[in-house]
Structure formats: structure tokens, C-alpha cells
Amino acid sequence: MPATVPMFPGDIYDSAARSAADMALKLSRDDSPAGCAALLKAADDMGWNLALLPEDRGGLGLGYEGLTAIAEACGAEGGPLALAGSACAVPELAALCPEPIRDRLDAALNSGKVMTAALGAMVEDQLRDNGLSLSASGDSVTLTGTLAGIDGAVPPDHLLVALSFGDKVALIEVTKESGASYQVRRRMDTRHALAVTFATPTAFTPLAVLDSAAITEVEARCALVAASEAIGAAGRALDMTIAYLIEREQFGVSLSSFQVLRHKTVDIFVACTVARGTVTEAVLALDSGSASLRDLALATLETRAAASHIGKEVVQLHGGVGMTDVLPAAKLARRLLMLDYEYGSTARTLAQLAGYPS
Amino acid sequence: MEQVEARCHFRGNQSQENLSMSDTADLAEFRQEVSDFVAANCPADIRARVASYHKIGVEDQLAWQRILAQKGWGASTWPVEWGGTGWSVRQRFIFDEVQAEFDCPPAPHQGLRHIGPVLIAFGSPEQQQAFLPRILDGSDFWCQGYSEPNAGSDLANLGTNAVLDGDDYVVNGQKIWTTQAHESQMMFALVRTGRGDRKQHGISLLLIPMDSPGLEVRPIISIDGWHHLNEVFFTDVRVPVANRVGDEGAAWTYAKFLLDRERLGPVHQVPGGAVLARRVRELIETEVTGPARQGERAALLGRLARVDSRLMGLRRLGEEAIEALAADRPVGLSPSVIKLAFGALFQELTEIGAEAGGRRQALDFTPPEQGNHPDEAEWLPNFLYQRARTIFGGTSEVQRNLISRRLFGN
Description:
Helices cover about 55% and strands about 20% of the residues of chain A. Chain A is an alpha+beta fold. Chain B has a four-stranded mixed beta sheet, with helices on one face. A four-stranded antiparallel beta sheet of chain B has the order 2-3-7-6, with no helix packed on it. The interface of A and B includes residues 5, 265, 266, 274 and 305 of A.
């Protein structure tokens, strides 16, 4: 029996847990981009990408409660899919566009097109690191170079990119016709990520020009979805650690008989449980319309800290075997350590919190 | 050692509470009623002492208890026939929460929440008549005689013995860390009246007047410079058999009953933490100012943000525990997690408070009882006192042992 309980127990979580387990099994046999494409199709058939989209926009209207229940279930299986980009950023960014564009993007999401997004803050990082250059002239934005770190495993039909300039953000849409090329990369946690390259200067007319605060909010919501995945991963990593400590013997006795190891395990449990509470609280506030940016930042701050602590402690408690990259617990540990590189970071969240009214 | 009651602020989520709209409106009305009463009736000088972490004496606690009792709100957790309010779990927490927000003094909880419920469940009719009304109306303050020099976390190892002699028990031994024993009228004490197969057997619960001949109270000055704690010595103290609660040798059962009743106890602490966090933030914003201290201020606010984020999670756990209790479902490990996490969190909060506002007190530390800095909030003594939070009511290490048994199945 799992040591922790899901954030939102119920049919959505149970169904997602079964599907995620099946996906993880398939992924263990074939984790090529083609294998991932099949999983993406399966997820889309189950409506995961439509979970957040309101019913009046053709979605399932499950709110953040439904989406994060799915994300948590996926996280427990190592997060076979990147849900934050496709299921959160895309519908949230679409909602910021003028109605005709929003409807077109919603229709694309509804028709099963592969869609993902890259947010402004990430782009700013890549502007420095990967040589992406941006120039704005009149009504158009021109891009050259490579933008990396995009959620996804296969080249998307529609990529929404938020580009910061000054205190404004231009939201552009990269399609198959845009002349961009994609490279599939591996992240630390073995999940795929995409990089998109504009070999020659490519001009785009923005879908919308937004205040940067709007993108900050979308990023915070995506961070909450990623944090939900981490909650699932942390719970499963804890279960694996408990099982390992019970089974493994040293000095002729089970490791679970050593008080120091038991207490370390309790501290993992407490960290996981408290983080779960913060994310649950923020999700409920989001769905009730009462969430502030501060609420979202606090929830992800706690979860980032917990994920980092748990990721490192899981390795320590598994001893040498924790250092192998084939052990499922080690993979979950890397998934947990990855959280601080997704949709912000601890340092950035702290900086943001300093500016938010309490 | 006694645990100072902290009270809480729970943000309800209607969809999670299974409350109808009318229930929600009723609760809002109830909150307003309590707020209006507390604002109008809780003495300002007592509230000021609470808000500035000055010592809250027994008289402050009893004064507020008498006011609440006159209103009919003296015992929110007791059955109506004994003067309880008949409130729901949710109403009780709203009541606690409002009191926290208005800086009311802690309830005299050793009487109200500990021995009172035990007497209601296991006391004789005579005991109930003699003691319950005096707890309710603030006539008697009770202290708890549990810990001994060789019985702390291992409470069942207690050795204070009571030997039957006619209609009395003759008690000899020593209790320690007895909070407010020097200001109490009564003590409920665990004493050994026999030996059984296990050391939990043969322990009885006695109700002992603090003015009994042979009973001596000696002060222990705690790390914060205050006198809250005491040693209590028993030398041939005669206690009537009529003051034994329930059966001889069966007190461990009553202790477990109490533990079960108090399983939501840690949840009460969460909202008090929210009030403290708000106050620490205000302190940083008023004390750590100016360009030269910008970095220091950012560092303190960063630490406070971590505390705020954990408080947010604990608030949700508390809410879930209340919902479970209200629906008669198992509460699970949440209260234990809250107790463990909240102890560390409260200490961190008061540490931040001491760093931001305790410098003068650290450099000029005379016992607060001698009027050290009467016009300042006592951030430093509060920080020192809060070291006890991970010790009293079951140390953090004991809590980890308890949780680990559930996690590992042994």
C-alpha cells in the first residue's frame, strides 16, 4: 500500500494511473521518438491534452484538479509524457489570444494536432546560451538560431513561443511551414526535449503582444503541473525506498531496523506530504478563482525544495545501487532533481516572491 | 511540559468541505458572531501581552476563560450536558481561528482539553460534580503530573508511587517539567500503584490538590529566562481514594483515550503559525530597512518564504484532517506530520523573528520577568522558549519513531 495518498483521489487519478503504468511499460521497450509519438497519440485519445480546456472551448473542463491528478499519476511512473507544455501552456496561451486565433488554436488541439509551447523566460535563458537572436521590426519578429528545452518528443504541428522584449512578450506560432528544423534531445531524467532551429532569419507576425506578467502567470501554472508530476514521483520513490530498506540486509539484519535510516525515510515522507499539501492548496485555489501568483509561487517553492531533498535522499538510502542509472528509483530521483530546471527555478521563485504582496 | 495552544486560520474550500451553501453562510455568520464577541470582550491589555510574546500568566488565561464561560462558550469540546457548546468540528476550529487572530490568551487546556474529557468519560459522578464546573468557570487551574526524572519519552517508566492506606493513597516521589504547577490549584498525576506484566500496567490517575501537606513545588527557570516550569516533590502526600479516576492500575487506558481525543491537537497549531508568520514579516519590513540592509532583508524574506510555503501545505493537511474527522473517516498520519513539521517550522519562524528583532535583547539579556524590555515584543525569549516545541508532547524523535512504524509496518 502506498505510503502517501494522491492529491485528488478518484476516477480520473485511477484511470490515469493505469494508463501511465501501461505507457511506462511501453516506453521501457521503445523510448525512441517514434515510440513516444505512439504514447502521445494514446494520451490525446484519452483527452489528456483537453483536460484543462473549458467545455465551452471544446475541452473536458476538468480544471487544474483533473489535470494535476493526471500529472501526479504520470509522475509516479516516471513522467512518460510532458504534460505541462501541451496540456497547460497551450490552452492557457491560447486563452490570451484574440478570439479568432484562440478558436483556431483550440480547434487544432481538439483535432489531435501535436502542440507544445516554450515560454518567455526559458527563451531568455536560451538567448544567452544557445545563440538565439531576436529582432523586432514593425509588426513582425525575426528569429535566428536555436531555441532548446521545449517540452515534447516529436516535432509539433504547432509550437507556441513566447518571446520577451522589454516588458512585453510576443507570442508567435511556429508551424510545419515555418521552415524550422527540430532536434530531439534527452534531459537528465531521460525524457525527451526538443530544440528548434531557425537556420536563416525567419519572420513571424505575433499572434498577440502581451504583458510579461501574463506569461509569468502561465509559467507559474505550468510549474504547478510539473510540481504535481514531482509529487507522484516522490510518492513512488518513497515506496520503492521503503521496500528496498525492508528487503536489503547488512550486518545480518534488515536495513529498516536502523533508526537513522527510518528517520531519514520519515523525513522524506514528511517533505512529500507537506509539498503535496501546498500543491493541493494551490490547485484548489486556482480552480476556485482565488489563487494569487504568490500562492502558486509558494506551492512550487516548497515542491522544488522537497523534490531536491527527496531525490538526493533516495539515492543515499539506496546506497551504491542508487547510483546506477537502470534502477527505477534512481530514474525517479533524476526526475525529482529535474524539477528545479522546469518552468522557473528556486532562485527565480524566491525573487518573484519578494515582489509579490503577501 | 505543557504545550501552548496555538490557533489557526483555515481557508476553507467549499467544494472540498461537502458543505451546502446554507452551511457556508451559517459558518460565515458564526465567524462574524465570534469575531464581534471577541473584539468586544477580550481585554486589551491581555491581547497586547499575547501579541508581544510577553508572559501570559494563569490569571490572564482564567480571566478570559471566565468571560467565555459566562457567554456559554467556555468548553467548545465538551458535551452540552456539561456546559459544552454543541458546535460542529468546523465551528470549533473557526472559534479557535478567530481567537488566534485577535491575540486571545491560550485556553487553560490542561483542565479543558485533558482532564476534563477524561472525567466526563471515566470520572465518578462525585468527581464530575466537584471538578468539571470549576474547570469550566475558571475557578481552578490544573497542571499535569506526568514527566519524572527517569520517565520522559519513556513515560511508563514512572516511579512516583502511591500506597493504599485506609481511605487514602500515600504518594511519594517526584514530578518534573510541570508547567505552571506553582500557579495551579489541582494536579492530575500518573502514579504507580502496582506492577504488572508490562510497565504500562499498575499506573493509576489521581487528582491531587496542590495545597496538600507534603507537596512541595520548586521552580525551574527555563532557557528563555521565564518561570513556567517546576519540580514537584511528594513526601507522604495523602490523596483520598475518592480522587482516583476510574479503576486502579488502568490509567494507561485513560491516557490512550486522551491521546485519541487529542489526535487533532497538532492541527490547532497551524493557524497560530500563520499569525506568527504575518507578524515576523511585519517585523522585517519595519526593522530591517534601508539600502545598507537590503541584502539582509532579502535573506530573511527568503527564509520566511520557505516557512510560508510549508505553512500552506500544513494548512491543507489540517483541513483534510478536519474533513476526515467531520465525516467520521480515519484521520491518518496527517496530525503526526503536522506535529513534526510544525515544530521545526515554528522554531524557524521564531529564529527569523529573533534575528530581525532580537538583537537588543541578545546584547542586554536580563530575565524577562524582571522587566527586561517591557515595551518590546520578546522575540528573543520567544525564540528560546520555542526550542521546547520539538520536545513537549512527544519529541520529534518519538514522532519519527511512531511514523516509521506505520511506514515500515513494524
